[in-house]
Amino acid sequence: MDNAATTRVMPEEMELLEKILVEDYGNPSSLHRKGQMAERHLMDARQTVASILKTEPKRVFFTSCATESINTALRGAALKQKRFGRHILTSKGEHAAVRETLKDLENQGFKIEYLEQDASGRILESDLEEKLRDDTILVTLIHVNNETGCIQPVDTIGSLIRQKSSRALFHVDATQSFCKYPLYPDRYGIDLLSASGHKINAPKGIGLLYKGQRASIGPLLSGGGQESGFRSGTENVAFAACFAFAASTMWEERSELMERLMSLKRLAWEELKAVPDVFINGPSVDEGAAHILSIRVSGVRSEVLLHALEDDGIYVSSGSACSSNKPEEKSPTLHALGFTPAQMDETIRISFGRYSAEEDVMALSAAVKRLVPVLRRFSRK
User: Per-residue confidence at 327, pLDDT binned at 50, 70, 90?
Assistant: First the structure.
């Protein structure tokens, strides 16, 4: 029940992985047959991802993870655009990969300004329109919030940015939304888009960066000139192929899959809200992403409940997996929604994936109903 943190690789990918690592293991830069076979796998993977994004293959670059893609996009855009200004717009609900990168850019003299949002976490487009300036060089927003599942309307936001600013680049963190929701960057006015394989049942260690025509940013890595000179280093052909397989499978099945995950989410909330003083965080069940449910269990610390559920073989999260090992840092996402530190400490995230089933939801529900009254009695002592 922690699929927003990572997902299980599909069995078919293991067969593909073995074939490429053992048989088609050549370097795609080599001119001989082994190299050509590897290059074909890479080209096919790029074409697959490009077709999902409805863009040209030359716009798709493979990286090691979404964090690398985000860093490349934000740093590259800031450095390339700084001659026009240093003003960057973002939200208070961004992932740590964005927050920390922007913090570093702020230390370098860039001005970071935060957009207002409603009670669910969606940014106010009127505020975005008001805050876009002549010296705004970048807007970066998360599409689906990794903690609450709040969905930003990136299509209309992209159109608004293009209408109001001729220079500002638009970066979208699509780590939690790629292949789950339609994302057509050329059509939506998105200049840069980051995503990761291990959120969609591909291996850890592979990500992508879409780079639109307007985003003429430079590379962070120099060397042999791979990825059309944008990301040097021998390509991870096997993982790129697995990423493309997982993306293609999820994209083809997305309507049925997301409908099923939404049904599981609704069932989970119906069961869990029967427990006294349990509240949903952020958007309503139907307004948020189908695979993420954030709840607050009043009177029980999330870490205590997490480990109690773990003893039953049930795994949930106390927040973003990328920052859960930093107890000194409270959630900026929940803080922006007006949560107190104590309320943040009572929040757990339940997230669903391809292999989630109704019996998993019922097992979670039964465990929460049994454990919470006991844990509350202990916490009061």
Answer: very low
